[in-house]
Amino acid sequence: MARVGIEPRPLRLADAALAAWIAILAGVTVYGAATTTGFLTVSNMKAILTAASFVGIIAVGLTVIVLSGNLFSLALGQTAAISAMVFLYSLRWGLAAAILLTLVLGLAIGAAQGFVVGAWGANPIIVTIGAAGLMEGMAVWLSHGQSIVPPVDQTSWEHLANPVLGLPAPVYVFIVVTVLLAVVMARTRFGRQIYLLGENRVAARAAALPITLLTVGAFGIASLYTAGSGVLIGATSANASLLLVGSYTYDAIAAALVGGNAVTGGRGSIARTAAGAIFIATISDMLLLRGYSTGAQILVRGIIVVVVVVLTNLRERSR
Amino acid sequence: MEELSKSFGPVHAVRGLSLDVRAGEVHAVCGHNGAGKSTLVKTLVGLVRPDEGVIRFEGQELSLRNPQDAQSHGIALVNQELSLVPELSVEDNIYLGGLDVPLVYRRRRLSENARAVLDQLGLRHVQLGTAVEALSIGERQLVEIARLLVRDARLLILDEPTATLSKPEIERVFRATRDLVAQGRSVIFVSHRLDEVFELCDRVTVLRDGRRVATHEIHEIDRRSLIEHMLGEMEGAKAMGAHEHTDAGSGEAVVRIEGLTVPGSVASVSLTLESGVITGLAGQVGSGTSTILRALGGLVPTATGTVEVHGKPVLLNTPRRAVAAGVLYVPNDRQREGLFLGQTAERNLTVSRLRRLSRLGVLLRRRVRRTARELATMAGVSVERLGSPAASLSGGNQQKVLLGRALQLEGTALLALDEPTRGVDVGGRAEIHNLVREAARKGTAVIFSSTELDEVLDLADVVVTIFHGRIVSVVPRAEASAPAILADMTTSHASDGGVPS
Predict the structure, then answer these.
(1) What is the pLDDT of residues B339-371, one digit of tens each?
(2) Is the Cβ pair A6, B392 closer than 8 Å?
(3) Domains identified in chain A, total number
């Protein structure tokens, strides 16, 4: 039996490789920081944090799905986009009502997907692709394919995009919701059970954990956070259409992966994902400042994700 | 007369064992679990290399490196789990992976050859082009044999070939086996089922603790002495008076099981389980004991029948319902279904009682820690190990963690322990038995399954023997004897015996 033994685990090759990779990334970042003009300025730091916060909020929410062993949601971009649309449209009933409505809708969309996955054992990838298609269709149908803009007599939403004490509001939201979720995952029964479910679904069933409820919760939280990000995206761009779908889904997944969360579930943390989101934003920013094209940025991000995923996987397997 | 003998030195499972199989005979190998049957089989087909000793086959000393090697010398194993590809045709399966299939496929010659072998096995009605998935399990078994025959296997090893077969299918396999030995081939027949040994075999060798106890012509020996050989007279006598059993049973019926049936596995099992009484289900692997416990734990959705806990009927179709009704199932496969291996021992110990360790959904960390310490101490797991992943614990400690999580849980009416000491050494086993007794002493009803006779006799207050999904006997511990139970475990008294499938 490979897993039996009481001596402490020796440092394996995969651990060493991961450590080396982290060292290389840190080195490149420090080198880049020192040699890139304009990188080490307060305004650039703000730009990095702002860029990280929209994706970061989505990514930390997604982490609950990853930890629960349900892979990913591929409906995040769509959820963010229609949340932005719903938010801007419903501003006519007041800011508070608009935020509340958007968040409740996001929660419901995610909970429904979680129910299908948890209660019927459906594949989360397929369910969320289906949900993404449904949402796009609904959005086009209801908006007649037009962009949604906020009502002219309403300006209250602008607070959501404006700086507070020198930093844009989304940065604060990112920090608060990340800390909140980190506490939930570490300190609550729900969080503990999510980790157990992700570690071993078969054992979770035998141990009578509430699998359906947990899965509904995981997808609900991910979707709620995505809707929250959608509110901020809508407020920032003051114009919402399906064009906002963009690459939020893949960026959020990349952040969770680069943070080193186990794709198979059970191992990882909210903090890791937040770090992953900030790291990706940092690298993208640096490449941008050095004048690389968007293509190069995407390429570099892809390489980082692939290497981290391979190394984390090797490491998990050798445990 | 060809003769093959083998002996090998102090491997864990097998010590200085020698065995000779004659050409043209069916030679049975019997023995209780852990007697060394599978090690013997693995050695013969090159899956395990002996530390000492040699295999002589047809006058030639063999040093087998792998199953292909064994096959090229004419020794082949028919496995319990079939290795056919369901989607491919019978003929393709027969030649799949064959060493001497030429690169240029000479279809006609190969087809004729396959046809001849199938006919010889009584599969005249099976077309070469039929997909294997369209065949019955018994026919597949025969195709598997055909596959070995085209490779000119002269020593065939059948390892529990009948475990999944129906009566007529068993007949067919037996007929084919007799034909094979009539042609001068040899067959080693490994089986738990003594009836079949007497029906089919010419000689029988009994293994116990990795040694050969006896080899007899089949007509020289009767069932009784065969069982005595398997048990060892001394062992059997010792086991009978080994442990003091307190009559802790309050006589209060906690759980009533009526007509529990699982298609293909369990046939109408009815039992009453009393508070404080440990009921042991004795049965061979595949006899249905494990399925009975899984059904009680809510893990078998196809189970029918009624189960009453404290007089209230409960629907046990999900584990959550079972737990809510007070039935706690502890799985036998601790790595796959029992533990959360990557999570700490503390998390594993507390998984079933998180509700009581939290307030408004927030975990009370000090209470979690204290409870985990208490359970670890009770289960005999070092408290220092609580922070380590369950995967890093030894097998015995993993089992204790798994059991520990079921201890002292309020509202538990019945503990259902599936092979509670699987893969645990003797010392750990005694500790686990004490834990189970302790739980029973506190008034919980306990039911456990075991394929090991010693364990059943050691731990159970009531011994229920299961064969082929049915209850064969229910005997209070005081009246139970090892030979009688082993006889029940290996034959059904009722002649029909079968399970509806």
Answers:
(1) 999 999 999 999 999 999 999 999 999 999 999
(2) yes
(3) 1
Q: Do B343 and A4 touch (CB under 8 A)?
A: no
Interface A–B counts its CB contacts (< 8 A) at 85
Percent of chain A with pLDDT over 90: 57
Give the pLDDT confidence of A13-37 residue by residue, as tens digits: 666 766 777 787 788 778 888 888 8
* CA-based nearest distance B111→chain A, Å: 44
Residue at which a domain ends, from B202, B231, B260: B231
The domain boundary, picked from B390, B410, B430, lies at B410
What total of structural domains would you count in chain B? Answer: 3
B430-436's contacts with Cβ under 8 Å and 24+ in sequence apart are B431/B380, B431/B400, B432/B396, B432/B399, B432/B400, B432/B403, B433/B458, B433/B459, B435/B378, B435/B379, B435/B380, B435/B400, B435/B403, B435/B404, B435/B407, B436/B278, B436/B403
Position A193 pLDDT exceeds 90: yes
Contact A189 B339 (CB under 8 A): no
Residue B65 has pLDDT above 70, yes or no: yes
Same domain? For B78 and B19 the reply is yes
pTM of the shown model: 0.76
Residue B501 included in any domain: no
Q: Nearest chain B residue to A200 by CA: give it.
A: B340
Which of A9, A190, A200 is opposite residue B341, by nearest beta carbon? A200
Q: Residues B501, B263: contact at Cβ < 8 Å? A: yes
Same-domain status, B454 and B388: no
Specify the pLDDT at position B3. Answer: 44
HSE-CB of B146 using CA atoms within 13 angstroms: 32
Do residues B364 and B269 share a domain?
no
For residues B94 and B212, state if they share a domain.
yes
Question: What's the domain range around A97?
Answer: 48-150+157-253+261-271
Question: Does B239 map to a domain?
Answer: no
Residue type (1 letter), A254 = A
The partner residue sitting opposite B395, judged by closest CB among A4, A188, A196, is A4
CB contact under 8 A, B352 and A205: no
What is the C-alpha to C-alpha distance for residues A197 and A267, in angstroms, rounded to an integer? 11
> B1 falls in which pLDDT band (50, 70, 90)?
very low
Percent residues over pLDDT 70 in chain A? 93
What CATH number corresponds to the domain at position B110? 3.40.50.300
What's phi and psi for B60, nearest 5 deg?
-115, 135
Residue B154 lies in a domain: yes
- Closest partner residue to A205 among B319, B357, B361, by Cβ? B319
Judge whether B237 lies within some domain: no
- Whether B322 and A267 lie within 8 Å, measured CB to CB: no
Quick: pLDDT tens for A140-173: 999 888 899 888 887 788 888 788 888 889 999 9
* Residues spanned by the domain of B250: 246-326+413-495
